[in-house]
Amino acid sequence: MIGVKNLKKRFGDNVVLDGVDLTIQQGEVIAIIGPSGTGKSTLLRCIDRLERPEEGELQIGDLQVDLSRASRKDMINIRKRTAMVFQNWNLFHKKTALENVMEGLIVVKKLSKEQARQIAEEQLKNVGLYEWRNHYPRHLSGGQQQRVAIARALAMEPDLLLLDEPTSALDPELVGEVLETILKVAQEGYTMLLVSHEMSFVRKVATRVIFMENGHIIEDGTPGEIFNHPKSDRVRDFVRKIEMFNAPEYVI
Asked: Beta strand pairing status for 63-66 and 55-60?
């Protein structure tokens, strides 16, 4: 079980997260939706301790951390249990695809280069990029770079996979290949927390959907409940507006 308790984050006078509580069960794929600027990405970044919240506790199995006071050791332990896929890939430009996937295994998990290589090659096969393993990011398309980033995250065998709008920086024609990879990962049973504006994909991949606004979780339910039978007027209005543009964003 993974739990987030009383997570609070502000930037100056702007309260971004206002006491968020969240429980995630193993194997759940939770999509976080809502208007821009409502704390969705900040929630993921606080969980991974890329941002320091003013308050908040994180539990992943037997690991318990006060996120507001996390030590360097705490952050290393969090990164051993979680993995983040960013909007803009964050690959090392002077390392090959294979070396990018190996990096966390060597630095964080302290594996030997040979062990790291075997795992990295397997994960690149998993995302369909084994033949590109010796290419540098500049030789890869945006979609391929994002799939390398997904392979890098999976190589860490995380208890929780965090995906922060993983297709937002891609050209429209490249979105489908990345979403197909994420769908495959979800079907393999990974526990995932996904921020996305691809609503047709959210309907397809998520087992649970959370609607956030103004730093609060407004509604939490299955995709059918959130999109077809929302309880609050705010979520109903949001769904109505996105349904005005209900053509599928991608084809799988």
From this structure: antiparallel
HEC profile for the chain? CEEEEEEEEEECCEEEEEEEEEEECCCCEEEEECCCCCCHHHHHHHHCCCCCCCEEEEEECCEEEEHHHCCHHHHHHHHHHEEEECCCCCCCCCCCHHHHHHHHHHHCCCCCHHHHHHHHHHHHHHCCCHHHCCCCHHHCCHHHHHHHHHHHHHHCCCCEEEEECCCCCCCHHHHHHHHHHHHHHHHCCCCEEEECCCHHHHHHHCCEEEEEECCEEEEEECHHHHHHCCCCHHHHHHHHHHHCCCCCCCCC
Nearest partner of 101 among 62, 132, 63, judged by Cα: 132
- Which residues partner with 4 through β-bridges? 22, 58
Domain boundaries, the chain: 2-7+30-41+48-243
Topology, domain 2-7+30-41+48-243? Rossmann fold (3.40.50)
The structure's pTM equals 0.90
CA 100 to chain centre: 18
Question: Which residue has tokens 């489908």?
Answer: 176
Give mean pLDDT, residues 48-64. Answer: 96
- pLDDT at position 91 over 90: yes
Angle of the 97-107 helix axis to the 142-155 helix axis, nearest 10: 30
Nearest alpha-carbon partner for 155 in 213, 78, 101, 192: 101
